[in-house]
Amino acid sequence: MFDLLYTIAAFIVALGLLIAVHEFGHYWVARKMGVKVLRFSIGFGKPLLRAVRGSDQTEYVLAGIPLGGYVRMLDEREGEVDPSERHRAFNNQPVGKRIAIVAAGPVFNLIFAVLAYWAMFVVGVPGLKPIIGDVAHGTPAYSAGLKQGDQVVAVEGNATPTWSALLNELLPYAIDRRAVTLTVERDGVTHSALYPLDELRPDFEPDQLRQHLGLNPYRPAIPPRVHEVTADGPGARGGLLAHDLFLS
Q1: How many CB atoms are located within 10 Å of the residue 157 CB?
Q2: Which of 8, 15, 64, 139: CA 20 to 30 A from 221?
Q3: Of 23, 78, 199, 228, catalytic
Q4: pLDDT at residue 206 above 70?
């Protein structure tokens, strides 16, 4: 149940962020083009939060249905406009300005996507180190002399900090069935290993590359030892203590 609520909340936040960026594009360009903005709304329906700001008394609204948004601009097609403000009405702007205002939303979304991906790659994403687990007989990993605990740090000189990076580097060689040189770290010592990918079966499935290569991630054996006992919980009432080890 908690996972479902978390997924729904994450979806609403992500959608709201995209909507806010999109509508801000229309809003920002309209202001820069001299068009008067009457309302900037994130969401539809009844307003949950409302504020009026600026010399134009623009209304900023957060509404209850987070499935869209809108920017309402001064426009003679939607009501009477004071003659002194007709030059600020959207419908009286040159075609070029109107096109810029309408296109600003998608353009801002595109810029936001580029910046988001850039930030993700700068900050980095979590990944498992390519440390080898069990090595099955008859696989290229066995022929290359890989052992449990080895870490593949590079393929043909290209660094492989994660399992994903390792498999991405190996895939072209696997498709061409060409031998490739791995840089492997074992017990703090680095050495090279020739990986004979010409031994792959001709009908291997690319989405099962790791299994065909005999590359299984290392999974350390973690003993079932208690780290902490919650006060007044079932464990505490049953007499469990920190550092207890389950035997059966």
Answers
A1: 8
A2: 139
A3: 23
A4: no
